[in-house]
């Protein structure tokens, strides 16, 4: 694999060594091979690893197969993929409800398998959505970019905005829930608010529209705990319609949709922002209304 990466404007000042180690997070063993095999070039020339990287430089990295051994998975159906954005390093797709982001068994077919068929190579999950949830999901197209995208997620530099239809009327138009979330003691599928042993979780909620006795809301995550939005809304008396775990009332589907995903591309520093449509939500609310930000 050979990657050519132009150094964009506003790129932080650093040496080649710092770029590979601290920014690209390339493992030590692979950095060693890059160095000994002379597989790092800047502007077509071999480079001293202590040399600074300049804006406008063309960085060339060559990885051998043993650097990142190819992981093979069963391929799904490319025609099932609704692609929202794609470049050489990453792809964002609109996940339908009722399908897992990735399988739990080696031969299980999930969204990851369909995306890999669409791309033509094995892709890698950056973050996941519950099976019942639809919307924008980010995948890495190669193992080189995966740790960089994972760090963006950990550093809260990937913004995710959800739409949810929940029961009842919100107490305020804008709310922030910070209840800690932990495992349910008797049901491994579920999560609960656990002030003592739970993990920190923050969800910002904003009312979009009152629909009868229910509320259409935007939810923005600062953390990514399992079932976070579902648990927070349910705990505060506003379970999501159609939630099979936290709301006994029946509905067509879990009315939770990852509507918007935004990040700064780690290599180009360009802002990428995609909006995923949902037929279920467009039935109950015009898109021009629920697309507003909060």
The main pleated sheet reads as: 10 strands, mixed
Helix content range of the residues, please? 10-25%
What is the global morphology? Answer: elongated
Which regions have little confidence, pLDDT < 50, spanning 5+ residues? none
Brief summary of the model shown:
With 294 residues, the protein is of the alpha+beta class. It has helices spanning 16-23, 28-36, 111-119, 146-154, 228-235, 279-284, 287-290; strands at residues 2-6, 40-42, 45-46, 58-62, 83-86, 90-95, 124-125, 134-140, 158-167, 174-177, 181-183, 191-193, 203-211, 214-221, 256-264, 271-275. Strand 11 (181-183) and strand 12 (191-193) form a beta hairpin.
Question: How would you characterize this protein structure?
Answer:
With 294 residues, the chain is an alpha+beta fold. It has 7 helices and 16 strands. A hairpin with a 3-residue loop joins strand 5 (83-86) and strand 6 (90-95).
List key phrases describing it.
294 residues, alpha+beta, 4-stranded antiparallel beta sheet, 7 helices, 29% strand, elongated
């Amino acid at each position: 694999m050979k990657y050519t990466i132009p150094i964009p404007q506003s790129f932080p000042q650093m040496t080649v060594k710092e770029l590979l180690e601290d920014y690209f997070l390339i493992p030590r063993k692979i950095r060693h091979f890059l160095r000994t095999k002379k597989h790092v070039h800047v502007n077509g020339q071999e480079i001293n690893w202590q040399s600074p990287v300049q804006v406008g430089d063309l960085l060339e990295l060559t990885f051998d197969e043993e650097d990142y051994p190819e992981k093979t998975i069963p391929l799904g159906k490319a025609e099932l993929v609704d692609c929202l954005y794609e470049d050489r390093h990453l792809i964002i797709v609109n996940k339908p409800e009722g399908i897992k982001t990735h399988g739990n068994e080696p031969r299980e077919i999930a969204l990851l398998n369909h995306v890999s068929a669409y791309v033509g190579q094995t892709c890698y999950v950056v973050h996941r959505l519950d099976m019942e949830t639809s919307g924008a999901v980010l995948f890495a197209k190669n193992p080189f970019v995966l740790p960089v995208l994972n760090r963006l997620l950990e550093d809260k530099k990937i913004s995710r905005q959800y739409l949810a239809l929940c029961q009842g009327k919100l107490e305020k138009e804008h709310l922030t829930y910070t209840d800690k979330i932990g495992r349910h003691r008797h049901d491994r599928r579920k999560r609960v608010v656990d002030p003592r042993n739970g993990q920190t979780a923050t969800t910002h909620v904003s009312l979009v529209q009152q629909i009868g006795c229910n509320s259409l809301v935007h939810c923005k995550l600062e953390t990514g705990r399992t079932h976070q939005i579902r648990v927070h809304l349910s705990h505060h008396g506003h379970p999501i319609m159609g939630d099979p775990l936290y709301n006994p009332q029946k509905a067509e589907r879990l009315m939770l949709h990852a509507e918007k995903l935004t990040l700064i591309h780690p290599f180009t520093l360009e802002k990428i922002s995609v909006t995923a449509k949902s037929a279920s939500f467009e039935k109950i609310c015009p898109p021009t209304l629920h697309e507003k930000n909060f």
